[in-house]
Amino acid sequence: MKITKFNSKKANLSQQVKTIGIGQLLVQTICLSLGLMAVQGRIVAQEAPNIIWVSYNDDQDDQPAADAASNGFTLASDHIYTELLRTAGAHVTRHLTADGDPPADLFNQADLVIVSRAVVSGQYDDEATAWNTTIEAPVLMLSGYILRDNRMGFTSGNTMVDTVDLIKLKAEAPTHPVFKGIELDGDNLMLNDYAGIVTHNGIVQRGLSVNNNPIISAGNLIATVGTETDPTFGGMIIGEWDEGTLLIHDGSEENILAGKRMAFLTGSREINAPVSTAGLFDLESDGEQLFFNAVNYMAGSNLIAPPRVTAVNPRNNTIHAETDGGFSFKAVSAEPIPADGIQVIINNQDVTGSLIIGNDPLARTVSYDRVQANRAYNIEITITNGTGSRVVAVGFDTFDPDQLVYIEAENFNFGGGSYFDSMVLCNDFGGTVAGCYFDRVSEQGVDALDSNGFSDDRDYNFDAMPPEIFRYGGSAGRDEAVDTFLSSDLPREIYTSAADGSNGVILDYDLDLIGPGDWWNYTRTIESGTYSAILRVSSASDAEFELSLVTSNPAQGNQTLRTLGHFVVSGRPGYQSVTLTNTGAGPASFEANGKTTLRLSANSGVDAKVNYLIMAPYSEEITPSSLEGIALNQDGGVTISWSGQGGIESTSSLKNPNWQPVSNATSPYTVAPSDQEAYYRVAQ
Predict the structure, then answer these.
(1) What's the pLDDT tens digit per position in 261-271?
(2) Within the chain, which residue ranges are assigned CATH 2.60.40.3780?
(3) CA 138, CA 129: separation in Å to the nearest integer?
(4) Cα 279 off chain centre by
(5) pTM of the entire predicted model
């Protein structure tokens, strides 16, 4: 899943250039704006709609329901939906879902009532008749559970199935306004994804709940699940019913709809937690556009969302991506996106000046063709136009798996310096299987250190099968102080292809409940060479880890260390691959030659979970050059200045560019006036 946040201010953009046309003096996309510009979401050519949002979270977006708060929620579970609507200019009022008839007098004053996924479907059973017959305002329903025959009667049965992965929709009514701006293929299947599976606080949530029974014959089926591999395939996601439609629920109760209704299924299903934790935002970029289209259609409004980022390639969280295609995405909006409204930061470096940006202001194609092999990429995209700003984080790596040394974070030393070079997968209790780290117990202060000991243990389910924790110990009481818990990272082939163990399916685990001062030793025999290191980590807030070489006996306490570098983690949801760096001085490298003991230490990072370490062959990273300035000369020529290792490249066309290095170009470089059109960019 993508990571999205909203910003009411335009990001700072350093001076940058994408292309310069000489002859016709087509100087494009030069941004000199170094200050901040306020940008507000807004409505175009009409008043903002009044929307009532019915949910378990009834007050403000930052005030979750009490039982959600006790399950680690600090915001309303469905807050992203209401934030989006408010950002676009809508007036949104939260209303608590409850037993009893809905307040018709209040609801009928709204332009639209939206029933969140975060509701108890049992409150739409005896109350169904009042909902159907007294609410004249249009109602948009996000929960499949309340649509069923034994609830409000919009479908002919009660079967519920959850999605298990990303899904696309098939447009059953492709000309319907809800599909405005959505790309479909020849079979009316969305080109881009609709929704996916979300994670909260490291726990993978259930998918989107679909009522797989047919809708009643008087309804209009608009979209179904079009992903054939998903168990919800063919189930309704979007449908509508006109005012005056006859509904029959609970077997015989007949209702005549007092107003228009639309089903638009979105929001995660709760897992091992109260219903108030359901309804997490699960829409991909095109799914978000469908949501706005549905709201506008039902409310008669013209809300315009902040610009969207779609068609990201490689996708967020891709591992072992190919480098041939570089990195690309589309920036899409209902209002023009200026080329200087696009900023891309890669591994904390602004590469905006090296982007190739398409000319369609409503659907900008953006590509970066300088992706290198054996690198971890953490990318922040900022798109800004008159509707607001969107910031999207994307992470992927380009490592060759055949050249990597993996160290699973949960496989730290045990028993006072003991280790296994070849990992065996198992889940046998008591640490009895040769080569398997499961249930092996560390010696505190020698193999690892949990600074809080057993005092911060989470509420484990010790009877779960397969086990929830990786290292526990063989005695009646818990022996392993270090916390290890199920990982919610993307599954890797080593686990998906593994045969079941003695206690069920083999699972992946993280280091969990990490505190400053915690550390873990990893002894391995590593082939001689120069390596870089990458940490696979999830952290909701900024964190820092240190990697050191143990230079004394790893079987004894009070070990001596030599620092190799630091992993500086920027806080955001989801997992990311972070490269070891010399503090403030770029990527770090280290030498390995046979038996090596590495220590990973947490300098900070109470929200962090660590999945694994990668040792990759080290190569010098090419630092992209950056534009320093351009100047239009009196004779009509242009002088380009830049810093960094690279020179400049030119092409005669942007339609099918063939970028070629400009021979012997050094900064500053002057391009003489010419009748021939040419484009230039700063090279690596």
Answers:
(1) 999 999 999 98
(2) 3-39+308-397
(3) 16
(4) 16
(5) 0.69
